[in-house]
Amino acid sequence: MGIIGANVVQLILSHQAGGAGGASNPAALLSVPDIHKGLMNQEEGSADSSGKTIDRKTLEVLLETMRCDSTGVVDKVLCDDKNMSTRSPHYLVNKSAILQAVRRRLIHAIAEERFGYQSARIVELLQCKNYLEQQKISDMAILPAKEGRERLYDLYQNQWVDYMEVSKRGDFNPSNTYFFWTLSTEKLMENMLNAQYGTVYNLRCRYLKEIADGKSLLDFSHKITGAEEAHKFEKLSESLDRLDNAVLKIMENITVLGIL
Questions:
Q1: pLDDT in tens, 178-199
Q2: In the sheet where 30-31 sits, what is the strand order?
Q3: What's the rounded Cα separation, in Å, for the pair 129 and 139?
Q4: DSSP, res 69
Q5: What's the predicted TM-score (pTM) here?
Q6: DSSP letter at 153?
Q7: What are phi and psi of 244, to 5 degrees?
């Protein structure tokens, strides 16, 4: 949605902050005139307002585009307006939808890292469609039926997906049985969180080992004068920084996975 879209979201969020922030709290909602006025105030107080100006009509189109987007960034509620004889549209940021979208992208990224792009595509389809028939999955992922079946089985073995059998006959003959696959959300969240916790533990163990191995360098860093010792200290510092950043990234993942 660009800079203006980001400014709109930030403006509405700042208004929602500290309150219930939902449709049941009219004070948390902003009308189009209020949003437009807020954007104009932002522009006046900004040193660089290039590319941030928007007229009322374009703002209305932008808000509707954000509402109809697959993520559903904002919601629209019709409220009584004291300045109007009819109910007017007010908007609020759909925090839950945004968090869900962030989590979907994170799950896709982890699936791609572990199982490859095509399997991640299958995971993405199941996140969007819930239950899908096995052949339909292969068709939508543009995969040969055999490869689609193998990738689904691999995901099943790793407890990412589950399936339901629907047979046209009582004997569940495979040739007359349909397999409907779904993302095993509860198992998946538990396994992913456990894996992330394990990764944090391993990173912290590595961090402590680096500290122990480089104790003399760290204790006497203020006395380092030689080029060789300075180089060793720089490498140790870089390694510790990388480990710290990796832990922070994993903790972000844990927050996103566990927040909903």
A1: 889 999 878 888 888 998 999 9
A2: 30-31, 87-93, 74-80
A3: 14
A4: S
A5: 0.71
A6: H
A7: -60, -45
Which residues make Cβ contacts (< 8 Å) with residue 13, sequence separation at least 6?
A: 93
Residue pLDDT, tens place only, 122-151: 999 998 888 999 999 999 999 999 999 999
Distance CA 139, CA 252 (A): 34
What Rg, from alpha-carbon coordinates, does the chain have? 26
